[in-house]
Amino acid sequence: MPRPLPQAVLLVDGYNIIGAWPCLKKTRDYSGLEAARGELVEAMTSYSAFQAYDTQIVFDAHYQNTSSNREVITELVSVHYTDFGQTADTYIEKICASLRPQITQTRISRVIVATSDRAQQLTVQGYGAEWLSAQQLCWEVEATVCRVRKKYQPRKQSSSRFLASAIDAKARQRLAELRMGFK
Q1: Is 154 helix (H, G, I), strand (E, B) or coil?
Q2: Using 50, 70 and 90 to split pLDDT, how confident is the model at 161?
Q3: What is the DSSP string of 109-120?
Q4: For residue 68, pLDDT beyond 90
Q5: Where are the domains of the chain?
Q6: Is the CB of residue 52 less than 8 Å from the CB of residue 76?
Q7: Distance separating alpha carbons of residues 156 and 68, to the nearest angstrom
Q8: How many Å apart are CA 53 and CA 178, to the nearest integer?
Q9: Which helix H or strand E contains 137, and what residues bound it?
Q10: What does DSSP assign to residue 163?
Q11: Model confidence at 43: pLDDT above 50
């Protein structure tokens, strides 16, 4: 059975984000571009799962003589390497143009493009897409990580193995009174 259309599509200009996020620039400079791409994909995978966005991370291949390639990471995240001579910007513009009818027919509620490229911002907004700067995306990813940690953070463990130790003194006193038959 084909999966339903996503409510929101997030298109990420991969190298633009790597160049804008300090943590990814540091990784790129010390460990190489492949490591920085991996960190970006990992961050987007977690973020997309939490937000339920269909995320496409796009990397330029215009400096390499290779054909386009698509790598599916999860059900919600895929990585696209463009054709030789094609930039991530033109690829993203084509996707925005192809998704525009689905937005107008309300099959997709939002198309969001993450890039700090000003010309790209204006172009994709012309197609009805929203724009998110690299810095805004960074803040949203960090806020999402904090929300997830808070949501799944283990409860404070009692130092005792008895249930009575985990409740406050007033409740413990009331339980003792009930046990002794006092009202």
Answers
A1: coil
A2: low
A3: SEEEEE---HHH
A4: no
A5: 8-154
A6: yes
A7: 50
A8: 52
A9: helix 134-152
A10: G
A11: yes
Closest CA to 127 of 162, 90, 156, 154: 90
DSSP 108: S
Q: What's at 29, amino acid-wise?
A: D
| Strands 54-59 and 8-13, sheet pairing | parallel
Length of the chain: 183
3-state secondary structure 40-101: HHHHHHHHHHHHCCEEEEEECCCCCCCCCEEEECCCCEEEEECCCCCCHHHHHHHHHHHHHH
Strand partners of residue 59: 81
- Is the pLDDT at 78 greater than 60? The verdict is yes
Cα gap 175→19, rounded to integer Å? 61
| Fold of the CATH domain 8-154 | Rossmann fold (3.40.50)
The token pair at 114 is 């993450």
